[in-house]
Amino acid sequence: MAMRMSPVLTHYSFDADDWDEIQAFDCGDRDYEREVAEWLKSPADPPPPDSCALLDIAKDPPARIWLYRLEGDEDESTEDSLVGFGALDKSRWRWTTKKSPYIPISMILWFSVQKPYRRQPPGDEDGFYSSLIMDHLISEAFKEQHERPVLGLCVRPTNTRAIALYRRKHFTVDLDPYTDKRTGVQYARMARILDPVRLGEMVAGLS
To answer: What pTM did the predictor assign?
Structure first.
């Protein structure tokens, strides 16, 4: 009797050729869920008010976006299924008050899992697809920790499940909230220190 293979979460870089496929991406109906999906699925022409995935991978330097897929499952209903996506970019944030100097950071632009894959697979939270995707984004940010010793993100305060995940992933620094001037929506800003020694050197050098 053949042994059944468990599905494996793999990732690959998103590019314009993937745009048609991600039009079916659905991570929910809440405001913050629609916001994520709209950024991923919006066309580059005409450009949306707040950019989109296609525009962000075309800028210089480009954002890095990955699609995460299940592979190796014998069940055709899940084989090669698109589970979620994550995006990293570069930014500069004041560390840590409104009068502090700017430092270069890595930033998680967007991150989401499609509805069928929430809190999956069954078991410990650290094995959830959402947790595995976040682990990959963090590992990518660590590759540039010397140049950008902080990893930051913005999240709506109402997105409590995501905030709980970020806390588990050591986003323990809370910065001043960010308010989108166009929409009026306020976001909490959270950060994880990747290299405390390098961060201290940067802050000292800019003081």
So the answer is: 0.92
